[in-house]
Amino acid sequence: MPAPDSIGIVHTQYFTFAADRPFILESGAPLSPVTLAYETYGRLNADRSNAVLVVHALSGGAHAAGYRTADDPKPGWWDDAIGPGKAFDTDRFFVICSNVLGSCYGSSGPSSIDPATGQPYGLRFPVVTIGDMVRAQVALIDHLGIEKLLCVAGGSVGGMQVLEWAARHGERVRAAIPLATTARSNAMQIALSEVGRQAIYADPNWQNGDYYANGRRPDAGLAVARMIAHITYLSEQAMHRKFGRRLQSQERFGYQFQTEFQVESYLRHQGNAFIQRFDANSYLYITKAMDYFDLTMPAGSLAAALAGAAAVKFLVVSFTSDWLYPSHHSKELVSALTAVGADVSYLDIESSAGHDAFLVEVDTMTRLLGSFMDRLASEEGIRS
What we know:
Layout: E1 13-17, E2 23-24, E3 30-31, E4 34-41, E5 51-54, E6 82-83, E7 88-89, E8 94-98, E9 113-114, E10 119-120, H1 130-143, E11 151-155, H2 157-168, E12 175-179, H3 187-202, H4 219-233, H5 236-242, H6 262-275, H7 280-292, H8 302-305, E13 313-319, H9 327-339, E14 343-349, H10 357-360, H11 362-380
Parallel strand pairs: 5-8, 5-11, 6-7, 11-12, 12-13, 13-14
Antiparallel strand pairs: 1-4, 2-3, 4-8, 9-10
């Protein structure tokens, strides 16, 4: 049964729009209709001022907290932060999480059915951007009757969405919490994403994205892509602490090309688990959206891009061992926010956990996020 501080059993909901008038993407391509899967936790108060939007990272979905069934062995991906008495206290806040456009957990994406053909889109699904994902979320917030969000929060790719919300839709947001993220993907990050995509392309089952009907998915390629990505989520210290040079099930090297080291076994497990729940084409689409993300465009500078976010309160968090989105990315963001006069708090947290620290440093993040949300609630007069 769910723990006492869990929000309990939750249900995914679906919002479909743009059925009569296409949703025009940043590329200029139309998409119609558009569906977003989402979940909500807590209650919206009378003046609709207590809404918090939580946005997920690459492989996340709308299921951020609680359990789908009474015997569900695993809660939502940010259950540590969402629930009664937690950082995003559902006794005070109405928390929303939606699956991003292009994903495979209920929102429109390449595995969705193309109404024009009756078959999955595959690569016929138009390319989407972080901006497109956020504009779709704006449509969901409008649908829920919320004029202004109390806060938008998320890490990694979710942090990119937080920044997009603040920069492009600042009038709809009171506060923003970007965690372990960047305002623009750099060459190294793009290169790492491309290696993962090439692994998928090289899988003979990929079939240029048209693999849904034949029952043979590009699992080998997607598993390798996940293994590469997972390395970037950890740090050298975390890898050494977890695995060192320990062997998996033997006392000495076998001098063979089999899985021998514990770290090899761990990565294979991560890859094999991932292919059970994620779609290879969605991996391509979301990593491309990450690559395209550059908040400085078209304004020309980060400060100019964030001018519309001057009234938004920020909590920016980075982690010392995060080599995927190093601390200097967050420091650049803080400098730009300071330049436009925004109310910004910044913490570079000492951690050996790497990029995943925003999810695994539970006690630190609970105190930090909880304190910031307490401040917001007090300023806005929001009570339990």
